[in-house]
Amino acid sequence: METVTHHGRETAYREFDRGASGPRVLAVHGSGGTHRVWSAQVELASDYPFVALDLSGHGGSDDVAAEPGYETLSAYVDDTLAVAEAVDPDVLLGNSLGGAVIITALLEREVDVDGVVLAGTGPRLPVLDDLLRWVSEDFDRVVEFFHEPDHLFHDADAATLDVSRAALRKTGPEILERDFRTAHAFDRRGDLAAIDLPVLTIVGEYDRLTPVHYHEALCEELPECDLTVVDDAAHLAMLESPTPFNDAVRSFLAEL
Question: What digits encode the pLDDT tens for the residues 144-159?
Answer without folding.
Answer: 999 999 999 999 999 9
